[in-house]
Amino acid sequence: MKMELVNLNKTFRDAVAVRDVSLEVGHGELAAFLGPSGCGKTTTLLNIAGVYKPTSGDILFDGVRVNELQPKERDIGMVFQSYALYPHMSAYENIVFSLVLKKRPKDEMQREAKRVADMLGIGHLLDRSPAQLSGGQQQRVALARALIKRPKLLLFDEPLSNLDARLRMSMREEIKRLQVELGITSVYVTHDQVEAMSMADKVAVMQDGNLLAYVPPGELHERPRTIFIAQFIGSPSMNILDAEFVMKGGKPTAILAGGKVELEVPKERVPKLSGEKRAVKLGIRPESVFLEPQATADAYSAVTFVESMGRENLVVCDVDGQRIQFLSAPGESVHLGDHVGMKFDMASVQFFDPESGLSLLWS
């Protein structure tokens, strides 16, 4: 199934929850809606599901407008954060519940339950109640319940939020494997960038009800279109620094606020500006800043914070009142109060408009 949103808007009284969202999820693709709490991603999902009716705009399934259809008429399966399993029913009874409502024959229900249970490796758990299952097992039962209907569209609302880190990783792999094998078009809502970036064919980033970008995961990281995206994607987050872009001696140069740090900008990273001098926001990821001997360093400063991250440390410095964080390589010893030199990989630098927050490199 191809799913399209066309100028989708949803308001609750005077509050705008979703504003003019348009995108297309191709047949067999998985699209992730990513953003902080309250950004409109779950509201968008519930409009697709038919739980909410759009204030304006259209939802199309294979080109057919479905705005007026009830959830049960939309041929969808849904997996929730809370699992939403009936506690008084066995895993088997939860899985086949939709088929019971449709009064399907008993042998068909048993056959279909075995099919989805085998896919998810839970055939030995069908007689257990939800209380007897672990969080990961409950989530597999919830997924089996969604799959047994053979839906054309799968909707996921923060399905892994209640699982520990190890289980989240294994369930990410499981969900993506099944989605690809079955070729089911899927929409996946999450606040976790790792889930979105590792699972999705395209990621829709939302903020305050607005769709900021809908692009492949790699593009979000390498070509962020706004400061919000640049800082939301990647961990540790991108350094955003006040700077001035000038032509100095015929060379494009970024001068950090304070005037002590001058950085030559590669031709392919020159921002789209009118005039030869302008205030900008310079963005550079922590992994693009390196320790460097003072004589050849771009900047030199005292270390204000060090945090161990296992094999490497997160190092924070104050450069003319601006916070710069970077990762020290294994074996590099850095301590609080040390003075260190830093080198910036300008081949990966980003520039943004300080007022709008929009990229000056990528339209």
Automatic annotation (TrEMBL):
SMART domains: AAA. InterPro entries: AAA+_ATPase, ABC_transporter-like_ATP-bd, ABC_transporter-like_CS, ABC_transpr_MalK-like, ABC_transpr_MalK/UgpC-like, Mo/tungstate-bd_C_term_dom, NA-bd_OB-fold, OB_MalK-like. Signal peptide: none annotated. Residues 3-233 form the ABC transporter domain. One of its GO terms (molecular function) is ATP hydrolysis activity. Keywords: ATP-binding, Nucleotide-binding, Transport. This is Carbohydrate ABC transporter ATP-binding protein, CUT1 family. It comes from Alkalispirochaeta americana.
